[in-house]
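Bit of a strange request maybe. I'm writing a small parser for structure token strings and I need a real example to test against, not something I typed by hand. Could someone generate the tokens for this chain?
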Amino acid sequence: MSPAALLPELLILAGAVAGLVTGLFTARERQWVTAWINAAGLGGAALTTMTSHDMSPFEGYAVDVVTNVARITVSLATILVLGLAAGWARAQPRESELYTLISLAALGAILMAGAADLLVLVAAYLLASIPAYALAGFAKDAAGTEAALKYYLMGAFLGVVMLAGVTLAYGHSGATSYPETRAPAVAAVLLLGGLLFKAGGVPAHFWVPDVAQGASRPVAAFVTTVPKVGAFAALYRLASDGVIDEPALFAVLAAATMTLGNLAAFHQDNVRRLLAYSTISQAGYLLVPVAVAGRTELAAPALLYYLAAYAITNLGAFAVVVTAGADSLREYAGLARRSPWAASALVVCLLGLVGTPPTAVFAGKLLMFAAAWDGGYAWLAVLAAANTVASLFYYLRWIRPVFARQGAPGERRVGAVAVIAAAGSVLLGVGAGLVLLA
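Reply from user aminoacidic:
Good idea to test on real output. This should exercise your parser:
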């Protein structure tokens, strides 16, 4: 037992608590300092992860490459979210609480990734979910309140469903530790309920477009990105450890999720709903390596690289939405003239989500295709390729007005977070070989 193995998680928790306490004694106009405190905790978590070794702090929690990739991805992505939220929340009476809730939900996502016991997984699910429900309704407006209610009701229901699956799995195996647990078919389906909810996968995807549209833009960026990292890492661990030994079920869910997400995105005129359905389709692609977990050595690198690539690229697209302050496709007409940097970042991120080289998602999708083929699911690789081509249509529907000559004049904005994310996506794609060989 080595408590030092939990140092990244403890740093995030310390940053969240220190930020909350500091906010109690800080003037409203200086609450921004709590964002830096939370960011310091997250940055410390990423740095200590890079220098740590695989060791488990206790039996129910695993510290390995899956956990470490989740730690780094979640920490860095959440720092970008804090950058997006800082401008929106500036001088609000509960500004410090916003940053604390974001950090705690991010911590829950990391704990989901490292959980090696079903009871730890349930606790991590709750930590990742409860702060997110509050974040969805943080603005206290009608749209946010409705989004928070839908988010909470579906999350609570599917959380209970998952807990029922844990109960059945324990009754069948007499244990909750992953190496000793084998979930029968019914228990496996129930266990998937909560995890598919966090991942935004079919059939637990209904909350995604409503929360993405109703919550504030920085919160929408967070809930459609960061929790997915923990959810897919948890799904992969359950599949690779044999707790859920249903590859055909995962394959069907992957096919349904990527196809439904793409079909629903085709005619969206609200960019937040378009990105929401895009994240659902991306969840389908991410389920492919889970379906072949244990059947090919490419499954783990495909999932982990795709997760990191998706996180930074999706955040970049949402960052442009935050910068532009617009939700309708029509409002993006002439964006290239008003904000060339933001427009360039948007093009990179949208084409990146398609899987256009040299962006990171391109490398992730190549690995995903190879994993599906090598794992015996060639038909799933073909379907994923067809969905990838089809997705280009609705991303281009957004890109086309950006370069239109008409459009209302507006304030020139750079969108630093969007540019950083877009640059990160390209760098991660260009350096794919070095990262995968490291």
